[in-house]
Design a protein that fits this description.
The protein is of the alpha/beta class and 205 residues long. It has helices at 2-11, 23-28, 31-37, 96-114, 130-145, 174-201; strands spanning 16-19, 41-44, 52-55, 61-64, 73-77, 80-86, 121-127, 148-149, 151-153, 159-161. The protein is built from 6 helices and 10 strands.
Length: 205
């Protein structure tokens, strides 16, 4: 969540990003330490220990507020609402179960965004791995049709949009095409002669 909030503040006309973690993520992520590491100091507290408002020297703010049924990260960019659903996962793993969770995670947040009303800029965020890149390329065309982008976050915090898989077309060789072209006049002549014979015999279907 924080990994996407920072690029959002740096690349979009955004002054404030809101993060809405659930209870499980609040236990897994130290939002206060993570914000402080990125130059954001706490200026307002909240009932829960991890929540609050954090601000940097430039006046940009990160508001951490657990709120049900809200997207993981939301922001207002010059009047346009950005909604991002985020899902984490183990980046360096060959464990089948963890790889499966990465697969299911991207499908889950993509489906969750499709259930939301249109009219906002919707984004599905996952860490960049071989699995998420492969699944993301397969999902990208349909997600793009629904107005959903799939950016993946690299180890250094770089954000890369997933592009759809290229469509591969099988094209016959020029030699085969030449042979077919040579036979077409013969086939046309055969069909013409056949039609003439049917016409002169008076046969009808």
């Amino acid at each position: 969540m924080l990994a996407y909030a920072m690029p959002l503040l740096g690349s979009e006309p955004v002054k404030q990003v809101k993060i809405h973690p659930d209870g499980q993520r609040a236990q897994q992520i130290d939002f206060r330490a993570g914000s402080a590491k990125r130059g954001f100091g706490r200026i307002a507290t909240a009932p829960t220990a991890f929540a609050g408002t954090f601000e940097n020297a430039e006046g940009q703010r990160i508001v951490i507020h657990p709120q049900p049924r809200m997207s993981s990260v939301t922001a207002d960019a010059a009047g346009e609402t950005i909604e991002a659903e985020c899902k984490g996962g183990t980046v360096e793993t060959r464990h089948c179960g963890r790889l499966s969770r990465l697969d299911k995670g991207l499908c889950e947040i993509g489906g969750r965004l499709m259930m939301k009303p249109a009219g906002t800029r919707q984004v599905a965020i996952m860490p960049q791995t071989e699995v998420t890149l492969r699944i993301g390329r397969k999902l990208a065309p349909r997600c793009a049709g629904a107005g959903i982008r799939i950016p993946l976050i690299g180890r250094q915090g770089d954000v890369k949009d997933v592009q759809p898989e290229a469509t591969i077309k099988v094209v016959r060789s020029s030699g085969s095409a030449a042979k077919i072209a040579e036979r077409l006049p013969l086939w046309s002549a055969f069909c013409r002669d056949d039609r003439e014979q049917i016409a002169t015999s008076g046969w009808t279907r």
